[in-house]
Amino acid sequence: MLDLTYEVLARDKSGIQKRVSELLDRSIVKDYRARWNSVCFKPSPSVVGAEDGSINHKRYKNLVIYAVNATAHVYDGDIRSASSADVGVLYPYFQIEERLHLYRAIYEFKCALEVIDSVDLFLVDGSMISDLNAFRRLSQGVSKEQREEVFALLPMLEQAEGVEIASIELSRRLGPDGYREKLVFLEYLEYLTTLEKLLSRGLDKLVGISKLSTRSRLGTGVPDLAVFEEATSQAGYSDPETDVVTRRFPVYDELFRSLVFTISSIRLEDGKDVYMLEVPREIDKSQLIELLERISYTSVDGYPYLLKKAHKEVTITNREMKNLIAGLGIVAKTGREVLK
Amino acid sequence: MTGGSVIGVCIGEATPGEAAFISREMPVTGEYVTLEFEDARVLGMVESLVRGSPAISGDIIDPDVVERILKFEGTGGQYVRGRVRLLGDVKDLRIPKVPPPPGTKVKRADTETLRQLFSTGSIRIGTLLSNPEVEVKLDANMMVSRHLAILAITGAGKSNTVSVIVEALIKLEGMPIIFDMHSEYGDAGFTSVKKIAPRLNPVYLSFAEFKMLVDVGKDAYIQERLLRKAFNAAKSGMKGRGSFIEKILRKLEEKADSEELKTGSEKNAIAGVINKVEDFENKYEGLVDPHAPHILDQLEQGSANVIDLGSVDEDYADVIVSHILRRTLYKRKTGDMPPAFCIIEEAHILAPAKRPTHSKYWIDRIAREGRKFGVGLCLVSQRPKSLDQNSLSQANNTIIMRLIEPSDQRHVQQSSERLSDDLLAQLSSLNIGEAITLGLMTKIPALVKIDKYPGKIKGGDPDITGEWKKRAQKQRQLKKQKKAEITDLYTNII
């Protein structure tokens, strides 16, 4: 870091501190208390499932090694799990970060599909609207002809079973012209296909729980869940809102755009954190309370325990990634050696 | 038979001396295991264990959260990690040249293998803590010739351990000599016991020992010279009647009356030394006996020779212990007595770390030379850090019981290269009567449940409240009796 940074900090310190105190001023957010419905949730027994996934990678100058984990847990008196892991080389060397996150999402959804039929309620880590809007860039730069070539493989994608990424195998059928773009588009189609399967089979079961939602509809300039976290402390929920996805999709467009999502900020226990809840259907307040009571049944410390358990189990740390790489015995350059 | 049930598997990096493992079930610390690799079957000891649950991590601050997690998880999902110290091939205890590969199965060592390792000595002190079917027997030759230290806090079972060893030595027709600082062992109920009063015949004392008892300081040169002349004269068969002390006093008085003393300081010195010898006579009346036989002549082979030092002060105890150690070493050099095992209770008083004593010199000397001449030392202490490090480090065998003070633990570790960090960490968690035995008397370190000595040892905590109750009852009875007597007397008078 440049020494100049300290000089700038010294110069602007009081201004920054003032701004921070303004943003943390509870009096600003107290008006939003009226939108909060305090409820003491009575846990209601339910067969609950939850999933999470994780990806890590090591980027060399000429190749990328990735490792991906996903798991889905079900609690029906005992905890049952469906898990999947993969270690591989990302090929081609293209759209790396986005494709790796897409891989993680595919694995997560496929693990979820393994258990979705056996649960009353299935918790997804994050926002499904965000999932639908994600990875759009991966469909760009593909000509109409190239799309047609990829669409020809869609039935096979739809029929693919198991938890692995089918596109990698199916990509062998693609011609050399624009291979890179076609493969990435194929992977994106697999993502949408899997998401469609999950939404179709779990439309009345899926619940997205987002810890870090940036949704900001209150007009305060900060995320809504941060506003309610400051303004309230009791268990409850904010007045539910609905939302839809307006963008177009290369496949299942009608289905995806027909979905109406109900969204609410929620707190399961007094004094605990506020999360963003999202379900792919329209529900009223009483249905929301009923849903939250079922979620409370398997929650610990104000957060769904199965989501926490899944997160803990799948996280691939940098140290673990290093161990995996060591196991492969790869001798390759990262390009950063010169900086050491 | 190639070992017992599989309890875990090696993980991570291992060395030829130690390996980490994860376990399906909970072994116990000190448990013996075997690992088979590279055509060898290697014995190991579980030295440390960690148990945890990924679900119940250390950052939880609300006990209710734990309760709720347990509702979902039950007790499943827990893990046990441990470290095994590799002790050597079960055939010859040679440390393997290569570490065990990851994935090597960790098996419980079977009882037969353990018996071959721990039950071949001649002194039974107890059973393995992890397997009560396996007797722990010490090699008597190694224990005596390479010396022993028994270290523990008060009440951890030192006296019991000493008694168990002494009884075993009696059975071997050995010659244990106990310097009994707290009068614990005389009535302990040994199969054969020889109680020896701590009476010294001054004739047998060296001048240095005598000088110390008379309390002539090391800087009192004139007094020392006068006393030495009188001592040597009395010892060389000075003519006339009277005991050895009387002869010394007579010699000193003659000197005081003579014309030889010219200066005032010499006259003061002779008066001072006469006073000191007279004080000595009064102070140690009954202990210094000119007719007493030499203590070493009273020792009996095949008996516990208990020298009761409970009623003497530290100076006297120092002189008597150093005297006996000196004479024992001498007699063994000349072959005039059987091999002896000298048990020194409260060794940190007689061989302290930071000040010289007569005993310390001879303890150190026997620690160095005793092996060649068949004189063994057993240093018993509750304050290892106050014990002379030289002497302690010469004790090639150690029985360590519960030790809490970190400084004591470090001191012991500095004196014993066999005490690993993991074993050291266990010292504070040992229960009464449990011990770690290290050294040449056992083939490998052992965690032992020491046998309970069946006799009566006074070393235990006294029943204070019981004694108060008894005395109070006795006083009430006495009062009642007196009252009755007075009433009787009064009635008779009327």
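Chain A touches chain B at residues 75, 78-79, 298, 300-301, 305-306, 309, 312-313 (CB under 8 Å).
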